[in-house]
Design goal:
alpha+beta; 4 domains; 4-stranded mixed sheet
Length: 573
C-alpha cells in the first residue's frame, strides 16, 4: 500500500469509519477488520474521544448521542458518508446499486443519500458560465435567477429565460470539484490495494476493480457533454411514449461544465396529495413507465439507471418527466438476451430458468462454482417471492438478491446487472406511489411479449437482413467446392481428424520414468535387505568392525538412494 502524505486525512477518515461501524457488523467484519473493529469499549471510546478533540469526520461536530443511538447502523453509515464529502456521497449512491456487495438494508439506506449542500456563491457560478459560454449572462439570457433551484455536491441548478422567452434550467458544475473528486479517488485506490492484498473480502470482491469502476462512473458524471448526449439519446428512444417527457438540451448553451435544458416544472411522485392521486390515471402511468424502462434495458440497450422519485416528476399536464441522466447504463446484445430469460423466470416463478440466465450473464472466476448450490439458492429466492402477496413483491429486490447469490457463489456479475436491479427497485416504489395496487410482476409479464417482438423486429432491419443474405450467399457459393474437397479426401483415404488431447509422447516418457524409479527402488531395497542378512555372517574381512561384504552392499544402497533422491528433487517437474 503506497501512502501519499496528502491523503493521510482521508486514510484517517476511512479508518474512523471502520472503527465506528465495525463492531458487530458482519459487513465490516467480512472485510478482515474484525480484530480492529471489535476492540474493547474503553479503548474504542478513548480513540473516539481523541479523534473528537482533534477533528471529527470531515471536520464537523458529531451528532448528539441520543440522536445517533436512535439511528440504525445503515442510516448512520449514510450520514457519515454525507459528512465525508461529495466523492463519498457519490460512492455511497453507486454502492446502493451493488446488490452483489451489500445486503438489502444497506442498499435501502444508501439509496436515500442526499447530497444537498450549501450553494456556491452566484458570482462563482456566473464566472463559470461566462468562461464556458464565452458571453456575458446579460447577453445570453433575458432573465437569470440568482437563487439556485437546487444545490448538490457536484453542481447546482439555476432557472433562466433564453432570448425569445424559452424557460430553461442551467446545471453548472462547482468550481474545483473535479480535483477534489480525483484526490479522494486516489486515496480510495490506495485503500483498495491494501484490501485486495491483505483481506479475504478484497480478494473475493476485487475492491480495486470496484474503485476503478467508480472512477469511470463519477468522472463520466462530471462531463456534462456526456449527460447532454444521454438526454438526447433517451429522448429519441422514448419518443413513442406519450405519457413520458424528457427535457430537450440547448446545445449552444452547454459545455463540459454547463448543461442547459428545458425547464419542466412538476411534483415528486412520492409527494403527490390524495386529491391528485384520485384524479390521476396511476395504473396507465405506471404501466407505461415500466414498459419504457423494459424497452430501454432489453431493446435499446441504454437505460436511465437512477429513476428514484426525485428524478421522476409529475408534470402539470399529468405526464412523467425523467430528469438527471448523469447515471446511465449500457447493456450488450448477449446480456439483453439473458435478461429476457431472467425477468421471465422471476415473473413466472421459475427459479431454474432464472438461475441459468444469471449464469449466462455472469463471468466465472478462478475457483470452481457449485452449480447445484447456486440453482438451489436462486430457486429459494424466486420461490419466496412467488409465495408473497402482490403488495409485498419487489421485482428489483429479487434481482438484487440473485446478483448477491452470484457473488457468494464465486460468479462475477457485471455492474450493469446491479444497476438494473436498483432501477427496477426504484420503479417498484414509484409504481406503487402512482397506484397502490400496481403489480410489478404483472407489468413485466404483460410487456415482455411486446419487448420480445420489438427485439425480433430490431433484428429484421434492412442492415441485418443484408448481412444475413451476404453470409448465406458466401456459404452457398463455397459449399460445392468444399464438399468436393471432402469427397476427394475420403476417396483417397487421406482424410485426417486432428484431436487436441494429452501428449502421448510425454505420457510414455513419464510412464517409463515411473517404471525405472520403481525398479531402482526395488533393487535398493534388495541391497539393504541383503546387506542386513550378510551382516550376520562372521568373516575376517571387516569394515569399521562390521562384515566387509555387508558394508559394501549397504554403501551401494545408500549411494543409490542419494542419487535417486537427487534426481527426484532437482530434475523432476
Amino acid at each position: 500500500m503506497k501512502l501519499a502524505p496528502k491523503h493521510l486525512r482521508r486514510y484517517k477518515d476511512v479508518a474512523l469509519l471502520f472503527l465506528k461501524h465495525g463492531r458487530g457488523n458482519p459487513l465490516i467484519e467480512s472485510a478482515g477488520f474484525k480484530e480492529v473493529a471489535t476492540e474493547p469499549e474503553d479503548k474504542l471510546a478513548t480513540k473516539q474521544e481523541k479523534a473528537e478533540e482533534s477533528e471529527t469526520l470531515n471536520g464537523q461536530a458529531k451528532p448528539e448521542d441520543g440522536k445517533e443511538a436512535a439511528k440504525t447502523d445503515e442510516a448512520s453509515l449514510a450520514d457519515d458518508l454525507e459528512r465525508l464529502g461529495p466523492a463519498f456521497v457519490k460512492i455511497g449512491q453507486l454502492l446502493s446499486t451493488r446488490g452483489d456487495l451489500l445486503p438489502p438494508s444497506y442498499l435501502e439506506a444508501l439509496s436515500r443519500l442526499q447530497d444537498d449542500v450549501e450553494p456556491v456563491p452566484v458570482e462563482e457560478i456566473e464566472k463559470v458560465l461566462q468562461e464556458d459560454l464565452g458571453v456575458r449572462l446579460s447577453k445570453a439570457f433575458d432573465t437569470f435567477e440568482r437563487k439556485p433551484l437546487a444545490a448538490a455536491s457536484l453542481g447546482q441548478v439555476h432557472l433562466a429565460t433564453l432570448r425569445g422567452g424559452r424557460p430553461v434550467a442551467i446545471k453548472v458544475q462547482r468550481p474545483g470539484i473535479r480535483q477534489q473528486i480525483a484526490d479522494d479517488l486516489d486515496s480510495l485506490e490506495s485503500i483498495a490495494e491494501f484490501l485486495d492484498a491483505h483481506t479475504d473480502f478484497g480478494r473475493k470482491y476485487e475492491t480495486l476493480r470496484i474503485v476503478a469502476q467508480f472512477r469511470v462512473s463519477i468522472l463520466r458524471e462530471l462531463d456534462y457533454h456526456t449527460e447532454a448526449a444521454n438526454l438526447m439519446e433517451l429522448r429519441e428512444n422514448l419518443k413513442g411514449f406519450d405519457r413520458l417527457v424528457i427535457p430537450a438540451v440547448v446545445p449552444d448553451y452547454s459545455s463540459a461544465r454547463v448543461l442547459t435544458m428545458d425547464y419542466i416544472p412538476g411534483t415528486k411522485i412520492t409527494s403527490l396529495s390524495g386529491a391528485v392521486r384520485t384524479d390521476l390515471d396511476g395504473d396507465a402511468l405506471a404501466s407505461q413507465l415500466f414498459q419504457a424502462y423494459l424497452k430501454q434495458i432489453l431493446v435499446d440497450g441504454f437505460f436511465h439507471a437512477d429513476p428514484h422519485p426525485g428524478n421522476l416528476l409529475l408534470t402539470h399536464d399529468r405526464k412523467i418527466a425523467i430528469l438527471d441522466l448523469g447515471m446511465t447504463g449500457r447493456v450488450n446484445q448477449r446480456m439483453r438476451d439473458q435478461l429476457v430469460h431472467l425477468l421471465a423466470g422471476i415473473s413466472e416463478g421459475n427459479g431454474v430458468q432464472a438461475a441459468e440466465a444469471a449464469m449466462g450473464i455472469a463471468e466465472m472466476k478462478d475457483e470452481e462454482v457449485d452449480r447445484g448450490s447456486f440453482i438451489n439458492a436462486v430457486e429459494e429466492i424466486v420461490g419466496m417471492a412467488k409465495s408473497r402477496s402482490l403488495g409485498q413483491i419487489d421485482m428489483g429486490t429479487v434481482v438484487l438478491q440473485v446478483t448477491r447469490a452470484c457473488a457468494e457463489c464465486g460468479l462475477r456479475i457485471p455492474p450493469e446487472m446491479s444497476m438494473i436491479g436498483k432501477a427496477l427497485m426504484n420503479l417498484d416504489r414509484v409504481g406503487k406511489s402512482l397506484s397502490p395496487h400496481f403489480d410489478p410482476q404483472g407489468a413485466i409479464r404483460e410487456h415482455l411479449g411486446e419487448v420480445s417482438r420489438a427485439r425480433v423486429k430490431e433484428t429484421l432491419t434492412s442492415a441485418n437482413l443484408m448481412g444475413l443474405l451476404t453470409e448465406t450467399k458466401q456459404f452457398l457459393g463455397q459449399l460445392p467446392l468444399r464438399a468436393n474437397r471432402i469427397m476427394d479426401l475420403l476417396a483417397d483415404n487421406k482424410l485426417k481428424v486432428r484431436v487436441d488431447s494429452i501428449d502421448e509422447k510425454a505420457l510414455i516418457v513419464g510412464l517409463q520414468k515411473v517404471a525405472n524409479r520403481i525398479t531402482m527402488g526395488l533393487i535398493l531395497a534388495a541391497l539393504i535387505v541383503g546387506s542386513s542378512m550378510l551382516a550376520r555372517v562372521d568373516t575376517s574381512f571387516r569394515i569399521w568392525g562390521y562384515p566387509g561384504l555387508a558394508m559394501i552392499f549397504f554403501f551401494m544402497a545408500a549411494a543409490g538412494a542419494v542419487m535417486l533422491m537427487g534426481q527426484i528433487l532437482w530434475k523432476d517437474r
